[in-house]
Amino acid sequence: MAKKKIGSKEPGLFGDISRERFTEQSISDTLISNYMPYAMSVIVSRAIPEIDGFKPSQRKILYTMYKMGLINGPLTKSANVVGATMQLNPHSNDSIYETIVRMTRGNETFLHPFIDSKGNMGKHYSKDSFAAPRYTEVKLTKLARELFSEIDKETVDFVDNYDVTMKEPMLLPVTFPSILVNPNKGIAVAMSTNICMFNLREIVDATCAFIDDNMCDLKKYIKAPDFSTGGTLLYNEKVMDDIIENGRGSLRVRSKYTYDKQSSSIEITEIPYTTTTDQILGEIANLIKLGKFKEITDLRDSTDKDGLKLTIEIKKSADPERLMNQLFKTTSLEDTFPANFNLLINGQPRVLGVRGILGEWIVFRTTCVKRRLIYDISEKEERLHLLTGLEKILLDIDKAIAIIRHTDRDADVIPNLCDGFDIDYVQAEFIAEIKLRNINKEYILNKIEEKEKLEKEINELTEILVSPKKINDNIKAQLRDIADKYGIERKTAIVNEDEVDSAEPEETVDDYSLKVFLTREGYFKKIPTQALRTSPEQKLKENDEIIKTREWHNDSEIVFISDRQTVYKLRLYEIPETKASLMGEYLANLLDLQEDEHIVTFILKDNYKGFIVYLFENAKAVKIPYEAYETKGYRRKLKNAYSDASPLAGCLFLEKDREIIVGTDAGKYTRFNSSLLQPKPTKTNQGVQVIKLKQGQKAVTLSVPEDMGAGLKGLPFEKCLLK
Questions:
Q1: Whole-prediction pTM
Q2: In a domain, 292, yes or no
């Protein structure tokens, strides 16, 4: 409970003493009355954009520039725009100017900027500050005309500004989906937005297709987001589907670079939208200080008037492609854009995908077009009404002149004309204002011809107004015209995520001989060979035993196979060393195993040659090439590593085909050469029957003859593993 203070004065020994009394108030009530108005103000009036693509501060700036005549006029000092905007946006000069800067062509934040600029506007990809507003100049771009072309035709509602001295639009009547062609980021209270940008031509094509069929495949038209800083987007179809349908997804973007063999230098010319050159240089410099990337000899920012350029000089013996792959993994030369399409629809925050946004924009645009048509029809009807009155005086021009000439009082001219020609006050006023020189047949006949043209235009506009198809055709025609005028080529290249090298950065690893041990209870030991010479006695958990041991070397990969159709990969050097006197690493923790999941064997190899034979309890066996578990990147966990049709009874890794033995729980065995099993490219293949079972029996052992001994005595599953 919160306490609400109520002030009062009460008499005391030394006079009136000011005392305070408190009443209890619910915290939820306090939050609603005190905090909610602030929260709603931030959400609705500051941080979240609306369907026209703008936050209030951006809209106020652009409308101010429009009213200043900067849509066709010359550049003006940014300080003038800042001052004029204060009439609509009573915030600090600095915040207004920073918003202006981000919308300029010079800053390169927007893919399709609305403000042209002159002077130092800084760069989106650099932390260097921009010049003061008294030095820079701005005006609206040609594309900005599409924001205001219909604003004077009552297409949107206007409201009073903060001091009720002027009007401002609630939304701008944009003729294209600007919400999707430029970025918008904002943090409100308990919510945020991060809308990425798309290419104007692609959005226009998608919008036209959506108008024809709102369930069309938008990915046919929208390839991927297109960032103003370029770069290479690593395309993931699932992520793109989420963005199209749900408005959320994490996009991976890499820098673009070229390698100059002559100077042995890498030049980075485009970087992800979400990072800066300063951040990238700092990250690389820190890694160099830590002793990594010894092949880098120099690092500098070579950005000039021609654009961004980061230069990395490397040793001639270095592999530039391998180095860049490592830098992509360890620095923001590859970064992610967390898309979150949160916008206001009729004052309510909603998270919409591209499809949902296009649907809402078309509803908004249709309303604007209808209001524009109604306005145009009304204007033409008013003009037609005046010309209809003018037509009547054609019958007797002399009578009109006589009425005016013989009227004694000026105030009676209009009423007398109304009575004389059976016209209304507005028509009479129009006729009375005609100049004397224009009261001739030629002038009047020309106006009557204009009347016929107006009637035709009104009919055409009315037909469009009542026809949803014609309105849609009108919207599409405008969109295609905008794409032709202002469309640009894509800046961001697209590469399928599966096609890029996602190798982990290599580290300097000490390679030495060691011995590894796996116990039945799931403990794993990695002990240097030298340490075993001095202390060979192994400590184990009570009732535990070693089921597999192998001599190997530290700089290698180890593959664990579990009984839950899962393969786990680790760098052997990532596993901590232990001593014989310790129990070792518990694999359930090391590999984050599921409950009741157990490791049944491990494989140590420096390549992916050979194959694995799996035996299942239903006595089926399958041979899977080991290379089936090779991946382009370092993936720690591979699911569906083998069939789950029957529980696993045994598995063997074989370098080449050889004799193997399968045994059942009834004490029966069969021996055959593994070459009889055809390799299966599909890991989840269920295999072929290798021994006949009676009802209730199951296969339990898979081994090579050396493990079975002379008498072919059956061994427990754990003992069947290849040594």
A1: 0.69
A2: yes
